Every structure is written in structure tokens, then in C-alpha cells.
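Ticket #4471: structure export looks truncated?
Reporter: QA, pipeline team
Priority: medium

Steps to reproduce: submit the single chain below to the structure queue and open the exported record.
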Amino acid sequence: MIVRAKASLKEFGSFVKTVVDIEKKITAIGCELHIDCADELIADGSSGKDLWGANIYPEDKRIDFISMINIRPKDNNLSMEIQIPEIRSRVEVIIRDLFF
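Actual output as written to the record:
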């Protein structure tokens, strides 16, 4: 499900995967795998270079920035966790704006 405006996470329980398009400031949520959310955004016109994965824990409004799609040696992100402070911050702001 692509989210472009303020939305609720109630239907997703205590954990939900998300992929954020940091340029369009939208997200896809609720996919089984992060790559499925990324594919949904790409089908909607997003560019793969703008997509970053995270996990949301709605009950305590916590976000972690861990996903296989975040491993990008050419972008200097060598881990599943988003290591680039600017990108991590942008992902967090978008998620908080849309869901909290």
C-alpha cells in the first residue's frame, strides 16, 4: 500500500515493513519483504536510487533503519542499516510525518 498523506498504522499490529522514497516523500508499507514495497513504488514511478527500507514499531513509535535493500556499496552504505546520516534523517522525518 502506497502512502502519500497522513495515515494510520492500526491495521498492521506491532510491526510493519516500509520503503520510503526520499525524493517523492511517500512510502509503501505492509509488504512481506522490503523488496516487494520497493517494487510497488517503482511501478508507481519511483526511482530505485531514492528508495530506502525501514521497520516501524507503531506501539512505541520506534523506527529501525534495517533492510537488505539498504546494502549499497556504490552509495557508501555497506550495511543493512542506513549509515548515511542525511538519508537516515530524511527517512525518519518522512515516516514520522506520515504516521505519527
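Status: closed, not a bug. The export was complete when the record was re-opened. Leaving a note from the reviewer for reference: Residues 2-99 form one domain.
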